Amino acid sequence: MFVGKKQPAGYESVPMLEDVIKDKKYEPLLELLTATNILGRPYAGPPGIPEDRLKILLDAYEKALKDPELLKYADRAGRPIDYTPAADALKRVKKMLQVEPAQKRVLKDAFGVK
User: How far is CA 33 from CA 62, 79, 101, in A?
Assistant: First the structure.
């Protein structure tokens, strides 16, 4: 099964984990697994960044990560870029922080973490 936004090219026949596990009680765990996959290299700044500066930083970051030349270079290097907008990343992080301790234990047990 695949965890993330979508299957990469060549893996379209691999089912998405969220399409296989339908029970609502596992939704927070699915979100946690998906978020950690999507946000593999998150970016952050200190609290209290003035809104105008934050907008400049977010716009520049998005523009850079959508630049065709950078995307081509990254693909040639075998490091494709799959940009996640800041609003989506923040929403996912907030959901990650709401996972109940019992649900965290299920994941730890599944991965053999003590």
Answer: 24, 21, 15
